[in-house]
Amino acid sequence: MRIRGLITSGALAAILLGAAAAQAATLTVAEQKVSDEKAVFATVESTSVVPARSRIGGTVIALKVREGDSVTRGQEIATIGDDKLTLQMNSLDAQMQALMAQASQAQLDFDRTNGLVERGTLPRTKLDEARTALNVAENNLRAKTAERAVVQQQFKEGQVLAPDDGRVLKKMITVGSVVLQGDTIVTVAQQHYKLRLRVPERHARFLKAGDRVRVDGAEFGDHTAKFGTIDLVYPLIEDGRVVADATVEGLGQYFVGDRLRVWISGGDRPAFVIPSRYIRTEFGIDYVQLGEPGKTVAVPVQRGRDHPTPEMPDGLEILSGLRNGDRLVQP
Question: Model confidence over 52-72: pLDDT tens digits?
Fold first, then answer.
């Protein structure tokens, strides 16, 4: 009896699973509002292109990047050397050694004078003179040390650093070039790419911030479309075109200036959109399976173009052959 009960329970579970699978493989057709998409071209552009500039004048003695290299904020891009800085540093080192010797001698004179004054051999005015000489020698040494620190900082500023994360677009100099303070060494495109769309002005009234855009999967080397959002619509029409910026994920590996085909909304219209997996093609004719009580019927349909959405990546528009309320069964 227990074995028969287990068999009965297993059969009931199989029936329920089969019913659930059948229910999951069906779709009720309903007409819906879809975007009347128009294809336009957009260019991949960086959010901003920033120059990496020299902070001192001199000769470029090392260049550590080339076009296309990825850089991070603070990374050393080039090194600028100035022979005058080396000469100044040597001069300051020699002057500091002389001042250190003077300061040591002033300290000895002060200690000797202090001992003689305590024994009453010299008047106290001599001690004041020795203390003044010691203070002057120490202050001169501190001033020269600060001056040397300035030259040392100029040596450090000979390192040209990347202003932000991104990719090197163009280098303006070569090793051995003479540059002035503020000259551009390389230009860096920030690693935040956007799509700049140029849409015919007749579509301007349909274009607004927040609209969704679609990029064909073929543009990315796969079969999955990518979606983005329009961030900004510029109020100026250039050459009969409206300019807008859109953000799409996954543009980090593109070339700046690359052109992509982008689909934008040109208004709404009613349409039937179903997943492409519900269509079966035989002898060049597309069919869908309509579920009717106790049977399924193959009905020919006319397919339109692909209409993928984030909710239905394999969406396909059907031009004819379906009605509201039709119940499709996945073949």
Answer: 999 888 889 899 998 888 889
For 150, 187, 214, 234, 317, the CA distances from 324, given in Å and listed in that order, are: 81, 57, 27, 41, 14
Q: Alpha carbon of 172 to those of 58, 80, 191, 268: distances in Å?
A: 15, 14, 20, 49
Tokens of residue 35, six digits: 């975007």
pLDDT of 216 reads: 75
Closest CA to 52 of 187, 172, 176: 187
b or e along 144-169 (b: 16 or more beta carbons within 10 Å of the residue's beta carbon)? beeebeebeebbebbbbbbbbebbbb
**Cβ neighbours of residue 324 under 8 Å, at least 6 residues apart?**
29, 30, 31
Helix extents (H) in the chain: 2-24, 83-118, 124-156
pLDDT over threshold 50, residue 155: yes
Encoded tokens for 125:
């005015």
124-156 helix and 83-118 helix, angle to the nearest 10 degrees: 160
Residue 235 backbone dihedrals phi, psi, to 5 degrees: -80, 0
Relative to beta strand 212-215, strand 178-179 is unpaired
> What pLDDT score was predicted for residue 328?
87
User: pLDDT band at 25, cuts 50/70/90?
Assistant: confident
Question: Which H/E stretch holds residue 51?
Answer: strand 49-53
* Global confidence as pTM: 0.53
Q: How far is CA 286 from the centre of its chain?
A: 43
